[in-house]
Specification:
mainly beta, 54% strand, globular
């Protein structure tokens, strides 16, 4: 699942998504992550900052994080631009790994991402 949209705000909120507007009608699923960057390390996501959505037969189902699973995102590399963000168009480079499990709130279906990897250029 390739990252389609990746950016970082002035407040250091990282936004990643696997589906951009151009793919909404052809995608089968989407993973979106929004994290407040506080440094290299492990983040414990919640349903407030991560979403997994499945598109099927004209409808969408938003899965919830499995609270019984050790969901985590680990940022392993974070290299900001060499110049001030206001004076450069160079992106921040970020690498991360993740283990996530989602459940369909209306069924017993689960989706697990094991040893996922992210390599993104975060635009300003």
């Amino acid at each position: 699942m390739p990252i389609i949209k990746s950016e970082i705000s002035k407040n250091k909120v990282i936004s990643l998504s696997t589906v951009g507007p151009q793919l909404l009608y052809t995608a089968t699923d989407s993973l979106a992550i929004n994290l407040q960057y506080t440094g290299i390390g492990t983040y414990t996501p919640s349903d407030l900052n991560i979403a997994y959505t499945v598109f099927s037969n004209g409808s969408k189902t938003t899965y919830m994080l499995d609270q019984t699973y050790e969901n985590r995102i680990e940022i392993t590399d974070f290299v900001p631009p060499q110049n001030e963000p206001e004076t450069t168009t160079d992106p921040t480079e970020m690498k991360a790994t993740f283990n996530l499990r989602f459940t369909d709130p209306g069924h017993t279906t689960t989706v697990t991402f094991l040893d996922g990897k992210i390599a993104a250029h975060l635009g300003n």
